[in-house]
Amino acid sequence: MAIPGQIGMAIAWGIGREEGIIPDGPAPDLPKKQIQHMYVFAHCVATADAYIRNQCAANEVATVVAEDVPEMRKFLRNAFFGLLVNPYKVGPDRMVQFAADKAAGRIHPGLEFRISRIINTIHFVEKKDSLIILLADACAFGLRRYFSGQSYGTEFAKAMFGVDGMAAQGLGNDGLELGPYVSGTAWSIPRPPTTPT
To answer: For residue 110, which of 180, 50, 25 has the smallest C-alpha distance?
Structure first.
């Protein structure tokens, strides 16, 4: 769990609650769990793109490497290209405001779900063939335990982000105040923000 913190790696995530509703609009003919997977994946990728736009140099780009789940490949690609072609904005009224931000008088301005700094396409790989996928799985395990209040969740989050990193990014004990779909990014070594592009 400590590898992201040791190398200063940013982590983007998307969370979908099982009881979460499926957003309005056309949806593929899939079970609800797979549709939620598609939405959460799109939110995670858009959040990673926002991190790159807001925290990285203007010439920095990224690519997406994802675990190859054959029955989801087409739908995840469609979600990715949907945001590339048709971005949308979620206003502050639909964002979860963490207690730490509320107490400090910070109001989240909303989030634009778009892709402009992630290039190419999604690269699907077998889990066994990719160390980055194994690291992502470990982070997902730790974040799931943290956000659902399960045992060792806080310890895992502290290992990934450090205590200072958690507090600075609003990942305190109020991390359970989540709606049905949530995205975010966090990193252990704060980088000075650059001008958003």
So the answer is: 50
Determine how many CB atoms are found less than 10 A away from the CB of residue 51.
20
Split the chain (197 residues) into runs of 10 and give each run's mean pLDDT.
81 76 63 83 87 89 94 92 87 65 69 88 93 91 86 86 61 44 57 47
Q: How many CB atoms lie within 10 A of CB 167?
A: 12
DSSP 162: H
Whole-model pTM: value is 0.77
C-alpha 64/C-alpha 40 separation (Å) is 14
What token pair was written down for 63? 């690519």
Half-sphere exposure of 23 (CA within 13 A, CB side): 15
Contact 73, 126 (CB under 8 A): no
Cα distance between residue 195 and residue 197, in whole Å: 6
Q: Residue 72 gets which letter from DSSP?
A: T
141/156 Cα distance (integer angstroms)? 9
| C-alpha to C-alpha distance for 69 and 64, rounded to whole angstroms | 14
Domain coordinates of the chain in residue numbers? Answer: 11-181
